[in-house]
Design brief:
With about 450 residues, the protein is mostly helical. It has 20 helices and 2 strands. Its main location: membrane.
C-alpha cells in the first residue's frame, strides 16, 4: 500500500501547469461520448431515438469499469509487442507517479475517454436493429480484446509504435477501429449465425433508408463534438506547449474546410443548404486530422478537410446502391463512410504529408517525417501496414465477439422484426422521446383530484 507521503512526493514531481491543462482537456473531451449518442439518435427514426442514444451511455459506463479493472493495464502496461500485462490490475499503483509530466491517474483518465469515445462510435452499427442487453458484455469484451491491444500496439510500446507509425490521436485505434467494428456489427445483424438466426421472427432485412428524424439532435451533437475534438487533439500532447496550440488550430481548420466542402457540394446539387451535410463534412474533417494533428501545418490541414469531405461523401453513396440493398448493407450512422474510409485516408495521408519540423514544436518529439516534405518514402508503407492491421483486427475480433454473445440464451443480438417495426424505444426502453412517454397522462393534473380550484 502506497503511503500518502509517497503519493504527494510523486505529485510534487509533476508539472502543475501541464496537469491543469490535461485535466481541463479531459473535462472538455468527456461530452463527446454522449454527443456521439445524440448524433445517432438524430439519425435514427422517431421511434428509435432514445434506444439509439442509450449505447453511448452504456459505453461510457462499461468502459470506465473495464478501464479501471484491466483496460489501462492492458493498453499501457509493459507486456509484449501486442498487449500489456496486468501490473496495474484495478489501477494498482496508478496514482501520482509521473507519466511524462502529469500524474499517471490523470493520464489514465484522459486515455479512458479515448476508449469510451471509440466504443460509442462503434456500437452505432447496431442502432435500430440490435438489442441493448447484449451490448453490455460486448462493450466489455470489445474494450478488452479489440481496443486495448490496438492502443498498446500503437501507443503503449507495442510493435506498431516501434515500427515508427505516425498516429497522433488515433487514425487507427480510434477511427479505423470504430468504423471496422460498426461494420462487423452491421454485417452480423444482416446475416446472424447462431441464436438470432434460429428465430423466424428475427429474419434480418435491409432497413428502408430514411432521413435523420431530429435535426436539433444533430445540431447539438455537431457543436459538442467539434468543440470537444479541439480539446482531444490539443490534450494529446500531454503537456501545455506550442504544439498543443497548433494541434487545436489545425483541427479546427480541417473541420471547417470539411464542413464547407460537403455543404457546398450539396448546395450545388440541390440548391438547398443542409445541416446534415455540414455535420458530416465537419466529422469527415475531424476524422482526417486525428492521426496527423501533431504533424502537419495549417495549409495542409485546410486541404485535408476538403479531401476528407470529398472522399467520405463518395463513400456514403455505397449504401444507396442496388448492391447494398441486395446485400442488406446497413450503415445507419454513416460510420463506415466517415470513420472507416476517412480513417484509412487520414492515416495514409499522414505518411505522405507529415513534417518533422511541426512534430518538433513541443521541443521533444523527433520523427523522420513523411514522403513529400521530408523525403521519407518508408513512412507511407508503415502507415499502410498500420491501417490494414487495425482494420483486420477490429473487424475480425468484433465479429467473433458479437457471434459468441449471440450463442448465449437470452442474449440474442438481433431484435425481432416486430420490435424493429414498432420502434426500438418501445421494445427496448421503458421511455420515449415522444408521445409514448406521456401515454395515459394526457389529462395529468399537478395536484390530487381532491383539491378544488377556487
Amino acid at each position: 500500500m502506497i503511503s500518502a507521503t509517497e503519493v504527494l512526493t510523486a505529485w510534487e514531481a509533476c508539472d502543475k501547469t501541464d496537469s491543469a491543462f490535461i485535466l481541463i482537456c479531459s473535462v472538455f473531451c468527456w461530452p463527446i461520448i454522449p454527443a456521439v449518442g445524440l448524433g445517432y439518435s438524430g439519425y435514427s427514426t422517431r421511434r428509435s431515438g432514445l434506444a439509439s442514444f442509450m449505447p453511448a451511455l452504456l459505453s461510457v459506463s462499461v468502459c470506465t469499469i473495464q478501464w479501471w479493472l484491466v483496460g489501462y493495464s492492458l493498453a499501457y502496461g509493459e507486456g509484449n509487442a501486442f498487449i500489456g500485462d496486468l501490473k496495474h490490475f484495478m489501477h494498482m499503483d496508478v496514482l501520482a507517479e509521473p507519466v511524462g509530466t502529469i500524474p499517471a491517474i490523470l493520464f489514465s483518465e484522459f486515455q479512458l475517454i479515448f476508449c469510451a469515445t471509440v466504443c460509442a462510435i462503434a456500437v452505432g452499427g447496431a442502432c435500430e436493429r440490435g438489442r441493448l442487453l447484449p451490448l453490455i458484455p460486448f462493450i466489455f469484451l470489445w474494450a478488452t480484446f479489440v481496443y486495448c491491444p490496438l492502443a498498446h500496439m500503437v501507443w503503449g510500446g507495442g510493435f506498431l509504435g516501434e515500427l515508427g507509425v505516425l498516429d497522433f490521436a488515433g487514425g487507427t485505434p480510434v477511427h479505423i477501429c470504430s468504423g471496422a467494428t460498426a461494420t462487423a456489427l452491421s454485417i452480423y445483424l444482416s446475416y446472424p449465425l447462431f441464436r438470432s438466426r434460429k428465430s423466424a421472427a428475427r429474419t434480418p432485412a435491409h432497413l428502408a433508408l430514411h432521413k435523420p428524424h431530429n435535426t436539433l439532435s444533430q445540431l447539438l451533437a455537431l457543436v459538442t463534438i467539434w468543440g470537444s475534438w479541439l480539446a482531444f487533439d490539443a490534450g494529446t500532447t500531454l503537456a501545455f506547449n506550442f504544439k498543443s496550440i497548433m494541434a487545436m488550430c489545425v483541427t479546427n481548420l480541417c473541420a471547417a474546410s470539411g464542413a464547407m466542402t460537403w455543404a457546398f457540394m450539396t448546395y450545388y446539387e440541390t440548391g438547398k443548404w443542409s445541416l446534415d451535410s455540414t455535420f458530416l463534412g465537419a466529422i469527415s474533417g475531424l476524422v482526417m486530422i486525428t492521426p496527423s494533428a501533431g504533424f502537419i501545418d495549417m495549409a495542409t490541414a485546410f486541404f485535408f478537410g476538403i479531401a476528407g469531405a470529398v472522399i467520405s461523401r463518395q463513400a456514403l453513396r455505397i449504401k444507396f446502391t442496388d448492391v447494398a440493398r441486395r446485400w442488406k448493407w446497413v450503415d445507419n450512422g454513416d460510420t463506415f463512410a466517415t470513420h472507416c474510409i476517412g480513417g484509412f485516408v487520414g492515416t495514409i495521408a499522414t505518411g505522405l504529408f507529415a513534417q518533422k519540423e511541426v512534430a518538433a514544436l513541443d521541443g521533444v518529439t523527433e520523427v523522420v517525417g513523411g514522403v513529400f516534405f521530408d523525403g521519407n518514402v518508408r513512412q507511407l508503407g508503415v502507415q499502410v501496414v498500420e491501417a490494414l492491421i487495425g482494420f483486420t483486427w477490429a473487424f475480425s475480433v468484433s465479429y467473433m465477439l458479437i457471434a459468441l454473445i449471440d450463442c448465449v440464451p437470452g442474449w440474442e443480438v438481433l431484435a425481432v422484426d416486430k420490435d424493429v417495426m414498432v420502434g426500438m424505444d418501445a421494445s427496448q426502453m421503458g421511455e420515449s422521446l415522444y408521445e409514448d412517454q406521456w401515454k395515459g397522462e394526457e389529462d395529468y393534473q399537478p395536484f390530487a383530484a381532491t383539491i378544488q380550484l377556487e
